[in-house]
Write a structure and sequence with these properties.
Radius of gyration of chain A: 24 Å
Order of helices and strands of chain B: HHHHHHHHHHHHH
Oligomer: heterodimer
Shape of chain B: elongated
Strand order of the largest sheet of chain A: 6-7-8-3-9-10
CATH superfamily of the largest domain in chain A: P-loop containing nucleotide triphosphate hydrolases
Largest sheet of chain B: none
Strand content of chain A: 25-35%
Largest interface: A-B, 33 and 26 residues
Helix content of chain B: over 70%
Order of helices and strands of chain A: EEEHEEHEHHHEHEHEEHEHEEHEH
Number of domains of chain A: 2
Distance between the termini of chain A: 43 Å
Number of domains of chain B: 1
Number of helices of chain B: 13
Distance between the termini of chain B: 31 Å
Shape of chain A: elongated
Structural class of chain A: alpha/beta
Structural class of chain B: mainly alpha
């Protein structure tokens, strides 16, 4: 058995298709109640990783443990304990929403099937459409129904593979809000997505992969590690003299004047900002606003991918 | 067992909304039931054969006629020719349903969430198999019943009609029919696991109907005699063949190969 706090553990998880290494030596852990993002370009091995963890593909080498069950050893155990939303919803169009869920209720052996169906159809706003064939549903409705299907048996781990892909902004937002609700409930969710804002908003930690693991941390830590932290001082009038005053501090690595702002690179703004503000005021600066220059997760991602491309060219 | 029942119900809800499947599943049994009835109708009853003697019949067939007169024996000969034609129904119908059921999962991309559930490969294949076998067997039995009733109306001599209920027909319809259905399903599963189009699966599976057609031609031409011994041997061979084919069907239905190949 694995330690309780880790719902997923992978050790050097590898999967090859012929000569092609889709996933190479992936080692990570996911904690209970965590929303964990898998990011990477097309063909990076995200879906292959999810499929290995969902006991759909057998690893070529390495080990994976999901909810206490080892992949390739207790696959039935894994399948009972996980819920999967694949890239395509994969619903039976000729069946009604209720029939789709009832079918999967039987597959998972859900005892209180009818209550669970009602609960999730109501929660996702599909209860009034339950007798309609899924073939008549919009993309957003289908995606919501597929999420209901994945949750029907109250899985310990939920895998969501590109849950908002191909949805219009309104439908995407509905799905995203529902994932946020699941996060609030303390569900363990593995989310693969190309939408970096979505990952930034929803994920506690993200793994950036491109065949192998490139980076693994919280979005905030990844930003800090790659770009450091920068504080922006909006002044009535910024100049190089004020910037130089700030550079006198040991903890300031750079102070740059941009229009009427001074951008200051620091390690710990919460601790160091009061001293910087005091120095600026004492130097005659008139401070209008102070904020942190927030890098997007997209910047982190592009930086990491740029490094991968650079390495490949060398 | 609940999972298998759920799969069967789901398959029927899905497959029988496909007009092509409904056409194939209903047209063949209707045709195969109607054809012998038409032959009997146009034969006009045993009076037309009253002038026939046993010398006009294939010699190997005579022992089957027992006490029947030459004309009645000829009529019984005609009636019996269609046993093998009836045997085509339990092969073709499940092949069509199974092909659409398995390859259809690929085209609608429904297989991945299904395989992610704790359902076993055996349960999937038994469920999908029975979804094909049950309608095929019921259709065969229904067709046979209509044929028997039609023959009763059209054939004057009850002794000839009663031959339709002798062990030869009973074994053929109630034992060989279901065994042929299982064979059809197993073959379809194996082929459907490898191809991406239900029509291709159906066409390749169709090749396996040829031995039944061959038997039919053999019987019509007098080379073969379908008697009780023959049909019992056929049942025994089919039972062994079914076990082997179903085993291979499970082996061929590789969950991960199917998933990684079907993109």
């Amino acid at each position: 058995m694995i330690k309780n706090e880790h719902v997923i553990i992978t050790k050097n998880l590898t999967r090859a298709f012929g000569e092609n290494l889709a996933v190479n030596q992936l080692s990570l852990t996911v904690d209970k109640g965590e929303v964990f993002g898998l990011l990477g370009p097309n063909g990076a091995g995200k879906t292959t990783t999810v499929r290995m963890l969902a006991a759909l593909l057998v690893p070529t080498s390495g080990e994976a443990w999901v909810a206490g069950c080892q992949a390739g050893v207790d696959d039935q155990g894994i399948r009972q304990k996980i819920g999967l939303l694949p890239e395509s919803p994969g619903l039976y169009d000729a069946l009604t929403a209720e029939q789709n869920l009832a079918f999967y209720g039987e597959m998972y052996g859900v005892e209180n099937k009818n209550q669970q169906i009602q609960r999730y159809l109501e929660l996702l706003g599909l209860w009034n459409r339950r007798f309609e064939p899924v073939g008549t549903f919009s993309k957003g409705m289908r995606q919501k129904l597929a999420i209901a299907r994945a949750l029907l048996h109250e899985p310990e781990v939920l895998f969501l593979d590109e849950p908002t892909s191909g949805l219009d902004p309104q439908a995407a937002r509905l799905v995203r809000d529902f994932i946020a609700e699941l996060k609030e409930e303390g569900r363990t969710i593995i989310l693969t997505t190309h939408n970096l804002e979505e990952a930034d908003r929803l994920c506690d930690r993200v793994a950036v992969i491109s065949g192998h693991l490139l980076a693994l941390d919280s979005p905030r830590e990844l930003r800090r590690k790659l770009f450091g932290r920068r504080v922006v001082f909006h002044l009535l009038e910024a100049n190089q003299r004020l910037a130089s005053e700030l550079e006198k501090f040991d903890f300031v690595t750079e102070a740059q004047v941009v229009e009427n702002k001074i951008l200051v690179a620091v390690d710990d703004p919460e601790e160091q900002n009061p001293r910087l503000i005091r120095a600026l005021v004492e130097s005659g600066a008139e401070i209008q606003f102070v904020g942190e220059l927030r890098r997007r997760l997209e910047d982190v991602y592009l930086e990491l991918m740029g490094a991968v491309k650079g390495n490949q060219h060398e | 067992m609940n999972r298998i029942k759920a799969i069967i119900t789901k398959e029927w809800r899905e497959v029988f909304k496909n007009k092509f499947v409904i056409f194939t599943v209903s047209f063949l049994p209707i045709m195969i039931t109607a054809l012998p009835l038409l032959v009997l109708y146009f034969a006009g009853g045993s009076d037309d054969f009253s002038g026939l003697s046993s010398a006009d019949l294939p010699p190997q067939f005579l022992p089957l006629c027992g006490e029947l007169s030459g004309g009645d024996c000829m009529l019984y000969y005609l009636v019996t020719q269609f046993i093998l034609l009836f045997m085509m129904v339990p092969v073709i119908v499940p092949m069509t349903i199974a092909s659409y059921s398995i390859v259809g999962e690929k085209t609608t991309r429904t297989l991945e969430p299904l395989l992610a559930t704790p359902v076993s490969t055996l349960e999937i294949l038994v469920g999908k198999g029975l979804a094909g076998v049950i309608p095929a067997v019921l259709t065969t039995w229904g067709g046979y019943l209509i044929y028997a009733v039609g023959a009763h109306i059209m054939v004057a001599n009850p002794a000839v009609v009663s031959k339709l209920f002798d062990p030869l027909w009973m074994i053929a319809i109630f034992l060989v029919g279901p065994l042929l259905s299982i064979m059809g399903v197993s073959i379809s599963v194996m082929i459907s696991s490898r191809v991406n189009d239900p029509r291709v699966a159906e066409q390749i599976s169709g090749i396996f109907v040829l031995p039944v057609v061959g038997l039919f031609i053999g019987q019509m031409s007098g080379i073969l005699l379908i008697n009780e011994r023959f049909i019992l041997w056929m049942a025994a061979i089919l039972a062994v063949l079914d076990a082997i084919l179903f085993y291979f069907a499970i082996q061929v239905f590789q969950r991960e190969t199917i998933l990684s190949r079907w993109k």
